[in-house]
Structure formats: C-alpha cells, structure tokens
C-alpha cells in the first residue's frame, strides 16, 4: 500500500478566460475544482492505475471538507486530520487561450507540531513493505525538519519517498529515503546555484546521494528525466512528444508512475519508463491524467511486442 502525506493540500480551481488582462476585468464561462497538493496528486493517479493507496495529511474548514469529498467522488481513499481553525488553501490556475498558464497559489492554515500527533500515530501503524510518500512544501508554521520527523514515525521496513525542496529536502535526505525527486530548479535551489543541462543535474544529484538519498530522480522538463540508482547506474529518458496543456501535477504524476512501475515490475528501468509516461500524460491533460492515458503512452513508447 502507498500512503501519501500532504501537509498543505489545496482545492485547485481551473479557469479558462478568453483573455487575461492584469488590472482589468476578465470573464470565464465556468470553473473546474479538483483536489490538489503533491501527495494528493500522487494518490489520485495511483488509484486510477489500480494501485492501493490512501491520501492523508492536514485539512481545515469547508474547503478541506470539499477536498475530501472530491477525493471520495474520485474513488480515492482519504485519511486527513482536520484542524479546528483555518481553511485549506485554494489555488487558482488561469489557463488563457493561446497564452502561458498563470498560477495563484494560496497559503494554508496554521499548523502546530502538536497537530501532527494523530498523523504520526497513523504512520506508526504502517506495515513492512508499505511505501510512504511525503510530498509538497512545508507550511511556514512548521520546522523544516518536519518530513525527517515523520519519516521517523514510520516503522522499519517502510520505504519513504520525498518530493519537496530547499532545507526540508536536505533534512529528509539525511534520513536515507528510498527515493527523492527534485526538478532541475529545485535541485539547484538546494545548493544555492542555477543549474543548466544534464551534466550539472547528474553532478548535483550525486551530491544528494552522498548526503544520504538512495535513489535520485530529476525531472528536466523538455529535457526529459534521469535517475541515479543506489547501485550507481545512470538512467536517462527523453521527453515524450505531445502538446502540453498544463504542467500542473506533472512532477507528482512522475512520482506516481515511478512507484506504480516499481511495484509492478521491481525494475528501475521500467519504473522510469512508467514515470515519464505518467508525467507526460498529465502534462498533455487539464488536471491529473487517468490511468488509461498513462497506459496508452506506455504501450506506444515502451512496450515491445515479442
């Protein structure tokens, strides 16, 4: 089972105005609300692919209850701890016709360390062989080492995947996660550098392995993706051809595809194949892709008939 944790989930509101004029009045026909947050996105796609998963984390207020309801309607089990104060954030994704998307991401509720105790109790009940995904930014009211703390709450034998950035990623890396997945910008941010190109990504991914990460995947946008395995192998994949609709959730889908492929195949090469298909399928969609879209891309690009 794959248990995902999102400390700062969201309702993602997608709008498509005919034109977007900052400072003016812009109109759109309708809004589409979808569950949001990195771990939530991972669980949504895993569920669509038929994997056993639970989306967990912290919610608050009527927006948090709507988030949980949307997950239920999508058939994705949820296990969120609800705060008594505050609101789960709303992220506005503006997708004007023929122009780049604009994202307005909201802040979340105040979370105290004590609010995490019920979540830590849940993590303590995970079983050997389960996978724990800790994904997304750390709320400002929590310390940067919170993911490292949550890793310590899980029993031995639970493999951990961390998808975050900055100091929170460094703190988690020191706990030896099974997999981390920064993008190129996040990888450079860890070391206070602006990175360009595959060679720079490889060199800095190796530095994260030296700090404790076992496997490091780096997404490179139009440059594809790479994976440094704990056995010392370098695997690379080109970006799949297609028309990008929205980049929202593509990196999260990459993580979901990797875990699905890893569980299904127990092979890092094939896990990376599934990962790039999942990331591309979401990039070619509005919202998180469906499992059949991922499977179609996998058959088209990686399945070799004997």
TrEMBL record:
Pathway annotation: Carbohydrate metabolism; D-tagatose 6-phosphate degradation; D-glyceraldehyde 3-phosphate and glycerone phosphate from D-tagatose 6-phosphate: step 1/2
InterPro entries reported for this sequence: Carboh/pur_kinase_PfkB_CS (IPR002173), PfkB_dom (IPR011611), Ribokinase-like (IPR029056), Tagatose/fructose_Pkinase (IPR017583)
Keywords: ATP-binding, Kinase, Lactose metabolism, Nucleotide-binding, Transferase
Enzyme class (EC, first level): transferase
Domain Carbohydrate kinase PfkB: 22-288
Molecular function per GO: ATP binding; phosphofructokinase activity; tagatose-6-phosphate kinase activity
Record-linked SUPFAM superfamilies: Ribokinase-like
Gene Ontology CC terms: cytosol
Catalytic activity: D-tagatofuranose 6-phosphate + ATP = D-tagatofuranose 1,6-bisphosphate + ADP + H(+)
EC number(s) given by UniProt: 2.7.1.144
Family: Belongs to the carbohydrate kinase PfkB family. LacC subfamily.
PANTHER family xrefs: 1-PHOSPHOFRUCTOKINASE, 1-PHOSPHOFRUCTOKINASE-RELATED
Official protein name in the record: Tagatose-6-phosphate kinase
Origin species: Acutalibacter muris
């Amino acid at each position: 089972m794959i248990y995902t944790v999102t400390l700062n989930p969201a309702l993602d509101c997608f709008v498509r105005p005919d034109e977007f004029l900052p400072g003016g009045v812009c109109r759109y026909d309708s809004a589409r609300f979808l569950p949001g947050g990195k771990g939530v996105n991972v669980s949504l796609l895993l569920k669509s692919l038929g994997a056993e998963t639970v989306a967990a984390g912290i919610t608050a207020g009527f927006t948090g209850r709507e988030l949980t309801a949307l997950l239920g309607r999508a058939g994705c089990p949820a296990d969120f701890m609800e705060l008594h104060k505050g609101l789960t954030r709303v992220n506005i994704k503006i997708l004007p016709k023929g122009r780049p998307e604009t994202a307005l991401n909201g802040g979340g509720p105040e979370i105290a360390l004590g609010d995490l105790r019920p979540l830590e109790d849940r993590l303590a009940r995970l079983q050997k062989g389960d996978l724990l995904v800790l994904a997304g930014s750390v709320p400002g009211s929590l310390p940067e080492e919170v993911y490292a703390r949550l890793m310590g709450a899980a029993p031995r034998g639970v493999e951990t995947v961390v998808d975050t950035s900055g100091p929170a990623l460094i703190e988690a890396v020191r706990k030896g996660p099974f997999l981390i997945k920064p993008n190129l910008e996040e990888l450079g941010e860890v070391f206070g550098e602006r990175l360009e190109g595959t060679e720079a990504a490889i060199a800095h991914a190796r530095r994260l392995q030296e700090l404790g990460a076992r496997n490091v995947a780096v997404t490179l946008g139009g440059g594809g993706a790479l994976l440094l395995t704990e056995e010392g192998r370098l695997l690379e994949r080109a970006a799949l051809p297609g028309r990008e609709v929205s980049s929202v959730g593509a990196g999260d889908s990459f993580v979901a595809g990797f875990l699905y492929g890893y569980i299904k195949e127990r092979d890092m090469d094939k896990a990376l194949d599934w990962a790039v298909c999942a990331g591309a399928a979401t990039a070619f969609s509005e919202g998180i892709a469906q499992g059949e879209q991922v499977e179609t891309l996998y058959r088209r690009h990686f399945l070799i008939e004997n």
